Amino acid sequence: MLSRLTRPKAVAVCAVPVVALLATAVFAPLPFSLAQPGLTANVLGENKGDPVITISGAPTRKTSGELRMTTIEATGPDANVSLGDVFSAWFATDKAVMPRDSVYPSGGSVKEIEQHNANEMKESQDNATEAALGYLHEKGDVKVTLKLADVGGPSAGLLFSLGIVDKLDGDGSGGDLTGGRVVAGTGTIDADGKVGAVGGVSLKTQAARRDGATVFLVPKAECSDAKAELPKGLRLIPVTDLEGAVNALVSLEKGKGSVPSC
């Protein structure tokens, strides 16, 4: 038997399931990851007590300045991210909401994802070495070892290549590729030296500036993303390949030639 409710009572009764639904939505896990600026590491220096780049079979230079690879820190693949978390991060300039699949495209368990990221890092290091030695026309007896703890994925490739070039050849005429500056950047690289897009660029620029960088090398396709939350005092230089990145840094150092900008 149904009884007839007055309008105020009806609204109150109907509001109960709506409130319950909203509360569930706020606390229910969503397929997102929350990211923020992560660590940076100078590939010309040491990381946790070990040189990042070790070269044998050819004379190396003593470098000044820094080449800093950049990272983002994201919630883990098994973390519960709620609607409340998403709203909070949405309005923060130092945080980003990213589809979980874009951060952890391999899926699987935490252990499988860590292994996937480690494999990508190893492939990136191999490509970076091949690209740098190919650019310098170095013979096969040059051996390069790259070591960077607690970092996975392919996005440090460009900075690894630049670090190898700087240690072996600098700017090609006795100077440092960095010009003594703190230069940061991001980008994948293939064995032919082509630079590819990554992700989380607007967060990486913040990490770079926080750690003293004044120049940031960004894959050209991601210029607009890099400009979105660009910190003051950080100059963007778009790149598409290793040769272009080297040329831009040399032009910046010598004050000659054009330096591309976003």
From TrEMBL:
Domain Lon proteolytic, residue spans: 152-241
Gene3D superfamilies associated with the record: 3.30.230.10
SUPFAM superfamilies: Ribosomal protein S5 domain 2-like (SSF54211)
MF terms in GO: ATP binding; ATP-dependent peptidase activity; serine-type endopeptidase activity
GO biological process: protein catabolic process; proteolysis
Protein name as catalogued: Lon proteolytic domain-containing protein
Source organism phylogeny: Bacteria, Bacillati, Actinomycetota, Actinomycetes, Kitasatosporales
